[in-house]
Specification:
- Helix content is 16%, strand content 30%.
- The chain is built from five helices and 15 strands.
- The strands form two sheets. Strands 2, 3, 4, 5, 6, 7, 9, 10, 11, 12, 13, 14 and 15 form a 13-stranded mixed beta sheet that branches. Strands 1-8 form a two-stranded parallel sheet.
- A hairpin with a 2-residue loop joins strand 6 and strand 7.
């Protein structure tokens, strides 16, 4: 199962030559989220799953704090417009330590408006830092963005953000991932899924409480490139517990 999850996750998170063979899905029209499960039998969890993401975080169970430890030292290498999001591709080596296990950063990408919500509040943008351990288990660290002061590290990416779907550009400036994350990494945690088809479950979600900022101009540039909102609606909890770490 873990090997299968690894394969599915890599297929979902990467842009490959075979991408044109996969069922087309989107955020609007006939291939919008409410119809994902109808597009392919492989997408059945998008409708039938009971541990789907994103969610609205309303109540969280306080637990003994487990600090999130990040080792982000390598600058990203390129930025891709995959038609669903703007994805930043990284060197293998950065990682998060979670539950005593090493989860290696695979890539990070953005959604506008946010996918997860807090007490019903949606944020202008949400970044997903996607990690994977040696067994193929996936963990996503989500960071919210509010409009305010421009983010210098985000600007370095935005300056080379491809406008056409399917395009990739090598990053010229060194981007520090520390500038995309808040200093306070206290977070909410829950078990969920990929927020894109095939909506694979068993993903560890960590939603950081403290938001970062981006300027109105930075937000508008991303939205212009995407042409439409790229967030999946919140899903039912179905008895899941959100913990406050």
């Amino acid at each position: 199962m873990k090997g299968k999850l690894l394969f599915i996750a890599l297929a979902a998170f990467s842009v490959s030559a075979a991408a044109t063979d996969a069922p087309h899905w989107s955020y609007d029209g006939d291939a919008a989220p409410q119809n994902w499960s109808k597009l392919s039998p492989d997408f059945h969890l998008c409708e039938q799953g009971k541990a789907q993401s994103p969610i609205d975080i309303k109540e969280a169970l306080p637990v003994h704090p487990r600090p999130l430890k990040l080792s982000y030292q390598l600058p990203p290498v390129s930025v891709t417009n995959n038609g669903h999001s703007v994805q930043v591709n990284v060197q293998q080596g950065d990682f998060a330590t979670l539950d005593g296990d090493k989860f290696v950063l695979q890539q990070f990408h953005f959604h506008s408006p946010s996918e997860n919500t807090l007490n019903g509040k949606s944020f202008p943008m949400e970044a997903h830092f996607v990690h994977m351990d040696a067994e193929g288990e996936v963990a996503v660290i989500a960071v919210m963005f509010e409009t305010g002061k421009a983010n210098p590290e985000l600007e370095k990416i935005w300056q080379q953000m491809p406008e056409k779907a399917g395009e990739s550009v090598m990053l010229k400036e060194k981007v520090s991932l520390d500038g995309l994350l808040p200093k306070d990494l206290t977070h909410y945690r829950f078990s969920g899924s990929l927020t894109t088809p095939p909506c694979t479950e068993g993903v560890r979600w960590l939603v950081v409480k403290q938001p970062q900022t981006l300027s109105e101009a930075q937000l508008e540039k991303f939205q212009h490139v995407m042409h439409h909102a790229n967030n999946r609606p919140v899903q039912g909890l179905h008895g899941r517990v959100v913990v406050d770490e």
